[in-house]
Design goal:
single chain; mainly alpha
Length: about 180
């Protein structure tokens, strides 16, 4: 079989596909997870307007990746052992079980990114209220933070910069001066 002889060339392609599947879960299908967090009452969860029902594609892509990941096993069986090549598909259930783990990990990482962005906004709102001498209770600060965070994310989404904005907010290490002074002295 000529296709089995060409496996030497595309042996590592499933690894690249798994990276692509991880980014599929991380960047495209996370709104389902965020919607679940909103139902649980998590305040910082933001569900983008472009959300859609991606579960069938998640299942299909995971199944395709599990089948494609059997290619290295087929290559090993074909080159090193006397077993028939189709025995290599025996590893597919293992890789199919790995798909939901990747999905869960990617979606939790996305949620952590949004949470970090929310707490940057929380620090900004807290700093503004305290610098004006306008001391508010915690509930008012959280409500104002939720309002301003949602407003900013909707604006960023409307301009096509949601991911760029959330990443910038989550990765920044800038904190207001007074908070720094309180923690250092």
């Amino acid at each position: 079989m000529q296709i089995l002889e060409s496996l030497d060339y595309w042996f590592w392609i499933p690894v690249l596909f798994w990276v692509g599947l991880y980014f599929w879960f991380y960047r495209v299908t996370y709104p389902r997870y965020m919607k679940k967090l909103v139902r649980k009452g998590i305040k910082w969860a933001f569900v983008p307007a472009w959300r859609s029902y991606w579960a069938p594609l998640d299942f299909l892509f995971t199944l395709l990746m599990a089948l494609a990941s059997a290619l290295p096993a087929i290559w090993v069986l074909y080159n090193w052992f006397d077993y028939p090549w189709y025995y290599g598909f025996a590893v597919s259930p293992l890789f199919f079980a790995l798909g939901p783990v990747f999905c869960r990990t990617a979606k939790k990482k996305t949620a952590a990114l949004y949470q970090s962005a929310y707490f940057l906004e929380y620090r900004r709102v807290r700093y503004e209220t305290e610098s004006k001498g306008n001391f508010r209770n915690e509930v008012d600060v959280h409500n104002h933070t939720i309002w301003s965070f949602t407003k900013k994310l909707k604006n960023a989404e409307a301009h096509g910069r949601l991911w760029k904005y959330v990443n910038a907010m989550a990765k920044t290490k800038k904190i207001p001066r007074d908070i720094y002074a309180e923690t250092m002295y």
